Amino acid sequence: MTKIVNESLLEFQRQEDPHRALGVGVKNKILEELYEINIHEEDVEITSNNIIKPISRMDSGKWTDIYDIQLKYISKEMSELITNIYKIKNSINLTINEAIKNKISKKDIELILDIWGNDTQKKHGKIALSKYTRKRDEKKYDNHNNVYVFIGFEDKKPVMVNGKKYYEDFFNTEGMIKIDKFNGSDLQMVGMMQVRAQYQGNGARVYMINIPKDWMDEDRYENIPEEYYYVILDHMKKI
């Protein structure tokens, strides 16, 4: 079958694409525009997706100009992501979820977040990204297990042997708290627990464990449940 080419349409497209008309690559065109605002090639890296990644410190006044240039050379979906982070400052969870639905790669989302996000957006954005990019088996695992954190330390407990009281070493806790590992507030609480453990002595450390929901599902336990004591000691991890 003969393919019919609309020559007038092709001519229109050629006219609408200044890069092609000038014989200039997109990367070079971006660098030209950056040069006009006194940003040089050695100051930035241009990715294969045309994302402008500053590698030198930029004056705060330059970011609006970089933003305007950036949006000309990336996809509509990436433009929306940058705008939501930098200008509109939408909910970072919703922003990341929408970007994933728009088929933006995890690598590009991380890069855009690192370039355009503030410290809070970066922290919560990375948490959201880890949540929304889980594989099916990881989601299944998380749905069937709870995460508990606790401060653990060496302690002594009295034992009676032949009518005499002795003290033996054992691992004690301040209590076990169930957390949502994708909740920024819960992770902030873990950070506070780590600070407290540093000053507590007795070799205190913060630990975490994943444990089946049908074993433990309360929001808090004052102590490690006796029936799971050795299982938890064998599988807990320092954090």
Tell me what you see in this structure:
The structure is a single chain. The chain is an alpha+beta fold and 239 residues long. It folds into 2 domains: 14-132, no CATH class; 139-238, no CATH class. It is built from 11 helices and 8 strands. Strands 3, 4, 5, 6, 7 and 8 form a 6-stranded antiparallel sheet that branches. A two-stranded antiparallel sheet has the order 1-2. α6 (92-101) crosses α8 (119-132). The longest helix has 15 residues, at 184-198. The protein is elongated. Residues 1-6, 8-17 and 19-23 have low confidence and may be disordered.
Radius of gyration: 27 Å
* Cα separation of the termini: 65 Å
**Helical/strand content category:** alpha+beta
Describe the sheet with the most strands: 6 strands, antiparallel
- The helix tally amounts to 11
Low-confidence runs (pLDDT<50, min 5 residues)? 1-6, 8-17, 19-23
Number of domains: 2
What's the total number of strands? 8
Tell me, what's the shape?
A: elongated
| Approximate strand percentage | 15-25%
- The amount of helix comes to 40-55%
Q: Provide mean pLDDT, rounded.
A: 86
Order of helices and strands: HHHEEHHHHHHEEEHEEHE
Throw out a few tags for this protein.
239 residues, alpha+beta, 2 domains, two-stranded antiparallel sheet, elongated, disordered N terminus
